[in-house]
Amino acid sequence: MSPEEEPEYRTPPTCDLLSLLLTNRHPTGAVNEVWPNLYVGDAATAQDKTLLVNLGITHVVNAADGPQHINTGPCFYKDTDILYHGVEAPDCKDFDLSPFFTETADFIYGALSQKGKVLVHCARGISRSATLALAFLMIKERLTLVEAVEAVCRHRNILPNVGFLNQLRHLDSSLSLQRRTT
Fold first, then answer.
1. Which of 85, 107, 112, 172 pairs as cysteine with 11 (C-beta 3.0–4.6 A)?
2. Cα separation of 167 and 119, whole Å?
3. Is domain 30-181 in CATH 3.90.190.10, yes or no?
4. Could you tell me the residue ranges of all domains in the chain?
5. Is the alpha carbon torsion for 147, 161, 30, 59 positive or negative?
């Protein structure tokens, strides 16, 4: 291999991803901007409409939607101009979050392309919301999983559960295959 050739990217194993997620951790708040105009936060942030208005949030993705979770929904934000997208997902390693990756990435991308600001949240802003934010960065910003994790972890401590990490690994593999063939 010549020195200017990049080694071929390979999706890292789960143990390497966990190491990456657990190194260089630093205190992070209830909400953090992890990418320009993309915020990841917790339930308390999502329920504080004054804070959302002050942050300039125009769109909310609730990764813990539904009556058994954080039941905000579009009605909760009816007295604001905030647009809402809900994903009813438990933070459980056996739950398949991947069917929601593309529709959520499209919602976030649409908001950002209209100069909006998006809050993606779940209960603690660590697993479900982080997974959807990472999927957005991979699908729409064409980052590898490692690049997406590094970008988000610069601003917020996240730790998607092992099931979600494996779903992101699968997404990473399929996207890197697409990148090689285009």
1. 172
2. 22
3. yes
4. 30-181
5. positive
